[in-house]
Each structure stands twice: as structure tokens, then as C-alpha cells.
Design goal:
This protein is mostly helical. The protein is 73% helix and 0% strand. The protein is built from 6 helices and no strands. It is globular. The model has no long low-confidence stretch (mean pLDDT 89).
């Protein structure tokens, strides 16, 4: 199964169901060339389910497999969101 086929297979599934499909794929295809994309997709699903640490772990796993993965952008966006600081909210 390619990354595009995997993406199509999880389209329309709930977050929990998509994570299960992606986890099964990752466990069954440990040496697949597009495994980094599966980790990135699962990380995005985790992020959408408010499971921030699981998302970051998946992004880092994808980057370890492929340093030029789309997970680099996802991790950068994640860090920017988590690092956001609005001083007006803390000092009314």
C-alpha cells in the first residue's frame, strides 16, 4: 500500500479509527519506504485529537526516518503553536 492509498483509506474515518489503521500499517510495514508519511499522518490525527505529545513523538519518528519529511514542517508549526505567548493574556 502506498502513502496515497493509505491516505485514501483513512479519509472519512474518525480520529480513533484512523489512528488504529495507521498504527496497524506502521507495525506491519516496518521497512516500508513511505513509513515516514504514515507517522506524519498519524501525528496529524493525534494533533487533531488533542494528544499533543503523541503527535510530536510521531513527527520526530518520521524525521528520524526521513530528515526531509513533511513532518519537519508539521513539527515546526507545532512548536510555533506551543511557544505562542500573548503577554496581554497574562497581564490584563
Amino acid at each position: 500500500m502506498t502513502a496515497n492509498e493509505l491516505k485514501e483509506s483513512i479519509r472519512g474515518l474518525s480520529g480513533q479509527e484512523a489512528v488504529k489503521v495507521l498504527t496497524d500499517y506502521i507495525e506491519a510495514n516496518g521497512g516500508a519506504p513511505d513509513l515516514d508519511e504514515a507517522y506524519t499522518m498519524r501525528g496529524m490525527k493525534y494533533w487533531g485529537m488533542q494528544q499533543r505529545s503523541a503527535a510530536i513523538n510521531d513527527y520526530l519518528a518520521a524525521i528520524r526516518l526521513n530528515p526531509e519529511s513533511k513532518a519537519v514542517q508539521a513539527l515546526k508549526a507545532t512548536n510555533e503553536i506551543l511557544d505562542y505567548y500573548n503577554k496581554d493574556l497574562y497581564n490584563p
